[in-house]
Design goal:
The chain is an alpha/beta fold and 298 residues long. It is built from eleven helices and 13 strands. It is globular. The structure holds flavin-adenine dinucleotide. The site of flavin-adenine dinucleotide has 25 residues, from helix 1 and strand 2.
Length: 298
């Protein structure tokens, strides 16, 4: 490859892809339209405070994809983390958020009888395999929660809000089961939650951006990409919103496909059926995103 790989977007997705590529010896040029890295995890300064864009935490952090990537490239020490011991959530009063099965037994929000019925659901889930959990990806979580009493439903609402920033209606049973497996210490899981010790949540992105810059690569902030240039069915470059063009034969787009397909390509490049399918992708949840590689000629 004669030119660097172009990556559009410097959120955690674009930066973790860049981190892995530069570690494998492929130089990258990242273009990010805002003035900061982090994307949806960007933080801002207000007087003497650092404010995140909504509530962010690394649940079961040692099992998280980001932590695994930092470990793979041996830079995990650059991200100083504080272990978050107690998280409270509000539901007609403050309650301690359960970080493991043991905590559920002590939950003040839920009557004892409901705690027992919750354990009957969660324990088999915690001991299932990741492969079995994947088979449940097409089953909605509501198939389980719709049969529950009011208090048990409240438990699922709280866990989904914290783990996925969403409600059970938008989460699959498989995704939920994987979260419970990651919390099971008997399956190598952990109930440790973490948060960057210095700075806001965007510290994670800053660590990756600094590593990328050290490896002969660029992170260009304040540069919006207008178009991916395609000639003779091949990507040949990108056009920035100021009209400048950059040559490359590989472009990685790190923001949702249904936006990118409609915004970055000339009409006629993708067939209508493909565009229709992309536009039908469910946009309601903040965590489930579809990333795909094109396997057929454009
Ligand atoms: C309120 C809230 C709370 C959350 N809490 C958690 C949590 O506690 N734990 C957790 O793990 N996850 C959490 N998430 C989910 C997590 O934030 C996202 O899944 C993650 O940040 C997505 O990263 P990304 O890089 O895929 O996308 P993004 O962060 O959206 O990055 C895409 C980037 O592309 C840039 N871009 C777009 N178009 C262009 C263009 N034309 N040219 C150049 N650049 C462009 C954007 O500016 C953006 O920076 C939360 C999400 C929200 C909204």
């Amino acid at each position: 490859m004669k030119n660097p790989v172009v990556i559009i977007g410097a959120g955690v997705g674009g930066l973790s892809t860049a981190t892995l590529l530069v570690n494998d010896g492929f130089p990258v040029s990242i273009y990010e339209k805002s003035e900061n890295v982090g994307g949806r995890t960007a933080s801002m300064k207000f007087r003497n405070h650092i404010l995140d864009n909504g509530f962010h935490i690394m649940p079961f952090y040692k099992k998280s994809a980001i932590y695994e990537i930092l470990k793979d490239v041996k830079i995990e020490d650059r991200l100083k983390l504080a272990i978050v011991d107690k998280i409270a959530f509000y539901d007609n009063g403050f309650h301690t958020y359960p970080k493991g099965i043991g905590d559920i037994l002590k939950m003040s929000l839920i009557p004892f009888k409901s705690r027992i019925s919750l354990l009957k659901i969660l324990l088999p889930m915690a001991f299932t395999s990741m492969e079995k959990a994947e088979e449940l990806d097409s089953v909605p979580l509501t198939q389980v929660t719709s049969k529950l009493d009011f208090h048990s439903k409240q438990f699922f609402d709280a866990v989904c809000m914290l783990a996925f920033a969403d409600s059970p209606e938008h989460i699959s049973l498989g995704e939920f089961a994987r979260t419970i497996i990651r919390a099971n210490p008997f399956k190598g899981g952990t109930s440790e939650f973490a948060y960057p010790d210095m700075g806001g949540y965007d510290r994670i992105s800053e660590v990756m951006a600094n590593y990328v810059k050290e490896q002969d690569s660029e992170v260009n902030l304040g540069h919006s990409i207008k178009k991916v240039i395609v000639q003779n069915k091949k990507v040949t470059g990108i056009e920035l919103s100021d009209g400048k063009t950059v040559e490359t034969d590989c472009v990685i787009i790190s923001y949702p496909a249904y936006h990118a397909i409609n915004q970055l390509f000339e009409p006629g490049i993708f067939d209508d059926d493909f565009i229709k399918k992309t536009n039908r992708l469910n946009k309601t949840t903040s965590v489930v995103e579809v990333h795909f590689a094109l396997s057929k000629a454009l």
